[in-house]
């Protein structure tokens, strides 16, 4: 029997609607068992069964959430008929169907805006070390982008006063999309912009006030489509570090660890702990890069924090490092907010710089903590739902941090570590005598323009030239700072040390000068001329090194050429973290050309473009003789385990993101990759198939299937001359997670203006959507693009696998992932929604 479904074809989201099967034609009654099924229309036009457990009966109710807004559904009801005889299976017959498209139930608006300090007892109090949370609670605005701005309040009363506070808006904006719960949320880290915010807050005062007082008051506004639609009504008071309200002889109390947070002495055999009744944070310890627990370190060492927790995965914490004093503890380091990925997680850590150590020095002259300090860890939960408990802190077992004293008061230093096998330099320290032998060998193997070797002029002396010089320049000190650099920046094998030292040798003019040029010479980039063992050059690199190390080399750039520890650290930092990427993998391949160009001229395609290339070759080859490489290297031929184990986002044991895949004739040969060569999108060849690629660029197809994308690649686009231009990317990732390679990896494709010859492009299948949540291209006569279709889980995982594999293949780090709209004119959010979906898997 056939019938019709009676009910609203455009139900309002959030409202329960009734649907009933009605007889049709001459049928007057219903006399069967009925099951109801619901299908969702896919972008390729097919229908996906999303029923789950079918509803039963002649009359049922459905309620659609806001995430279903504007999506087409098909409701089907089947009559279930029992078999004619016992033992015969039942059958089903379609009784009716109905097309449904849910519509909005409410007028779109921002209902409430809040600003708070997550995870503390008083949500409306904060310091400039904290990260504030801004939320916009929205109605009927799913997937819309909200922009937040932070304001310092000098106006009386609640809310936003645009007239009085017109000069008090922070220049930075924060953007987020409204989720299915109707909330757009952003994090606002105050520490990253503390200097700007404090200057802005102290510049203007509330009418009648003489100063800003003990607190700066902040609120946020939420903007949609350029209009402010809401402001937080309760300010967050941020402690004003510049407030001088107390008498001169009574300094303000120093910040101290919070009373309710867990705290952990570091090292083995620590003091007694007060148990955590909730069991959330179990332990926190200092570890080194190998995962070994630390009880004693020195300034210049890198430390990491291992956090052992329970029921905290997905929640946010912040750790603070305190120097332990009998009266007041000194804060020396505060991490950014960290999302807990597992019950036991290791943080990226930080280097205990001289600046960090000095924060823990209570007395400026000769105090006990001027040379040795003890640190403990405080864990602060940043989620409202997680409670933190107090753990005991005891002086026993704290991690001891030692600062090397001057030569006048230095104690007897321990003997250098002996090599484990007496031959190889892998994973062991170099002694001062061994370093001298290496320098002499390189000087005897390299020659000046007159044909004299550098040993003739310099013998075994160190850093005797240049207008900026180190105060300590013995081989023992030189070996000490190099060994710390090797450990901090993974320069841990013979061949890595050989290439690093060989490049440092040439950069410093055979270890004679720590600064570029003569004092009388002027450079357009002064005062940020080249300094250090590998020349740190230009303001951008000085700033990045400052951010990483804590040393203020921006205001005092000569630190890099006058402090041998900083010179070594900056060189290791550049070797591992320069803009092009980690140089260690090129050293592993023993590629003198690549290590030379990455130090001297990253875009060089021939050796003649590299300054002093022959000198670099001779220095590296001389070191190989001293190192007895490769004859006695224990690491040669052994595949090293990754320092941090990675897993495939898709959970596969064999995947391109884990394996060293094969590339034949420009195409990846792996079970994860489907080849569908579209030769018309290839326009020329990369200058170098590996080193030319500097970015992985993310795109969306604005279509529903991989095949539709490939068809668009083949069809091309008409140009102004009436011809056809063919655009395309090297890869397409479908909604089902299948990865298709469409172009040869040695070939340039047109996918991002200005970057085609320097990048690989990835298209991720998905529509652009309009204000009603429907597909649009934003063309004339169509609704404008306001957002993008979310990636499927399979698609996000596969895209992440592909990006990880390409980063490994091209020796790039994650900073080289970019979005189309960030590099060329394009619809906002096109690549960003892809990056947001995959970043958690990278």
Question: Topology, pairings included?
Answer:
Elements: E1 3-6, E2 16-23, E3 33-41, E4 47-49, E5 55-56, E6 59-63, E7 73-81, E8 91-100, E9 109-116, E10 125-126, E11 131-139, E12 145-152, E13 169-177, E14 183-189, H1 194-203, E15 215-224, E16 227-231, E17 236-239, E18 263-265, E19 281-287, E20 296-298, E21 302-309, E22 316-323, E23 330-334, E24 338-339, E25 344-346, E26 350-351, H2 354-359, E27 372-381, E28 399-402, H3 432-445, H4 454-458, H5 475-488, H6 494-507, H7 539-549, H8 559-562, H9 564-577, H10 584-588, H11 592-600, H12 613-627, E29 662-664, E30 667-669, E31 673-675, E32 682-685, E33 695-700, H13 706-715, E34 717-718, E35 724-725, E36 731-733, E37 739-741, E38 747-749, E39 759-764, E40 768-769, E41 787-788, H14 793-809, E42 817-819, H15 820-823, H16 832-838
Parallel strand pairs: 10-17, 20-28, 31-37, 33-39, 33-42, 36-39
Antiparallel strand pairs: 1-2, 2-6, 3-4, 3-5, 3-7, 7-8, 9-11, 11-14, 12-13, 12-15, 15-16, 15-17, 18-27, 19-21, 21-25, 21-26, 22-23, 22-24, 22-27, 27-28, 29-30, 32-38, 34-35, 36-37, 40-41
């Amino acid at each position: 029997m056939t019938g019709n479904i009676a009910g609203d074809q455009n139900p309002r989201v959030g409202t329960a609607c009734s649907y009933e099967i009605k007889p049709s034609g001459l049928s007057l009654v219903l006399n069967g068992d009925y099951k109801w099924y619901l299908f969702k229309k896919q972008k390729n036009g097919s229908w996906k069964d999303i029923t789950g457990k079918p509803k039963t009966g002649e009359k049922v109710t459905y309620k659609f959430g806001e995430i279903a807004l504007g999506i087409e559904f098909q409701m089907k009801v089947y009559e279930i008929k029992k078999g004619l005889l016992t033992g015969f299976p039942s059958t089903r017959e379609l009784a009716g169907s109905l097309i449904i498209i849910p519509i909005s139930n409410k007028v779109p608006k921002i209902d409430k805006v809040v600003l708070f300090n997550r995870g503390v007892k008083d949500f409306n109090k904060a310091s400039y070390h904290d990260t504030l949370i801004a939320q916009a609670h929205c109605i009927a605005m799913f997937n819309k982008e909200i922009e937040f701005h932070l304001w310092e309040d000098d106006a009386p009363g609640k809310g936003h006063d645009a007239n009085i506070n017109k000069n008090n808006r922070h220049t930075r904006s924060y953007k987020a999309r409204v989720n299915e719960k109707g909330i757009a949320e952003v994090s606002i880290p105050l520490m990253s912009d503390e200097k700007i915010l404090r200057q802005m807050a102290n510049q203007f005062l509330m009418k009648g006030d003489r100063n800003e007082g003990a607190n700066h008051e902040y609120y946020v506004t939420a903007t949609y489509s350029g209009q402010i639609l809401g402001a937080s009504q309760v300010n967050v008071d941020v402690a004003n570090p510049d407030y001088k309200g107390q008498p001169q002889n009574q300094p303000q109390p120093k910040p101290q660890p919070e009373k309710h947070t867990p705290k952990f002495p570091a090292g083995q055999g620590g003091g007694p702990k007060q148990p955590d009744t909730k069991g959330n944070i179990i332990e926190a310890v200092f570890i080194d890069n190998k995962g070994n627990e630390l009880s004693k370190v020195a300034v210049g060492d890198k430390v990491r924090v291992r956090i052992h927790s329970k029921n905290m995965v997905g929640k946010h914490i912040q750790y603070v490092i305190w120097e332990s004093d009998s009266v007041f503890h000194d804060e020396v380091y505060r991490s950014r907010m960290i999302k807990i990925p597992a019950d036991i997680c290791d943080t990226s850590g930080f280097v205990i710089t001289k600046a960090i150590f000095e924060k823990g020095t209570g007395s400026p002259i000769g105090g006990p903590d001027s040379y040795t300090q003890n640190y403990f860890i405080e864990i602060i939960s940043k989620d409202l739902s997680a409670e933190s408990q107090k753990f005991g802190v005891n002086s026993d077992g704290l991690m001891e941090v030692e600062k090397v004293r001057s030569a006048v008061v230095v104690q007897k230093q321990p003997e250098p570590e002996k090599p484990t096998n007496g031959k190889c330099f892998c994973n062991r320290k170099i002694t001062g005598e061994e370093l001298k032998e290496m320098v002499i060998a390189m000087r005897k193997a390299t020659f000046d323009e007159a044909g004299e070797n550098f040993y003739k002029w310099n013998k075994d002396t160190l850093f005797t030239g240049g207008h900026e010089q180190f105060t300590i320049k013995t081989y023992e000190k030189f070996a000490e700072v190099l060994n710390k650099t090797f450990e901090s920046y993974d320069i841990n094998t013979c061949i890595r040390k050989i290439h690093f030292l060989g490049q440092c040798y040439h950069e410093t003019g055979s270890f004679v000068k720590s600064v570029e040029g003569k004092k009388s010479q002027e450079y357009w980039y002064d005062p940020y001329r080249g300094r250090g063992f590998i020349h740190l050059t230009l303001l951008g690199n000085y700033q990045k090194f400052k951010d990483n190390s804590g040393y203020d080399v921006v205001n005092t750039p000569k630190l890099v050429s006058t402090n041998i520890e900083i010179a070594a650290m900056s060189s290791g930092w550049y070797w591992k973290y320069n803009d092009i990427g980690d140089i260690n993998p090129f050293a592993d391949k023993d590629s003198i050309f690549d290590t030379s160009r990455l130090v001297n001229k990253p875009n060089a395609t021939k050796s003649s473009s590299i300054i002093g290339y022959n000198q670099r070759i001779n220095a590296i080859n001389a070191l190989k003789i001293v190192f007895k490489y490769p004859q006695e290297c224990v690491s040669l031929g052994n595949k090293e385990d990754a320092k941090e184990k990675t897993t495939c986002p898709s959970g596969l044991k064999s995947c391109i993101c884990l394996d060293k895949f094969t590339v034949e004739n420009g195409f990846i040969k792996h079970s994860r990759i489907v080849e569908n060569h579209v030769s018309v999108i290839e326009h020329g060849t990369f200058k170098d198939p590996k080193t030319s690629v500097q970015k992985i660029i993310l795109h969306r197809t604005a279509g529903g299937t991989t095949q539709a994308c490939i068809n668009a690649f083949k069809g091309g686009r008409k140009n102004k001359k009436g011809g056809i231009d063919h655009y395309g990317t090297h890869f397409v990732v479908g909604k089902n997670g299948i990865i298709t390679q469409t172009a040869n990896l040695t070939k340039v494709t047109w996918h991002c203006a200005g970057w085609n010859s320097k990048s690989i492009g990835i298209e991720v299948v998905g529509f652009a959507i309009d204000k009603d949540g429907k597909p649009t291209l934003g063309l004339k006569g169509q609704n404008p693009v306001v957002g993008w279709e979310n990636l499927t889980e399979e698609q996000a995982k596969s895209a992440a696998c592909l990006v990880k594999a390409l980063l490994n293949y091209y020796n790039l780090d994650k900073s080289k992932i970019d979005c189309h709209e960030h590099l060329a004119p394009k619809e906002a959010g096109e690549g960003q929604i892809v990056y947001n979906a995959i970043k958690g898997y990278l």
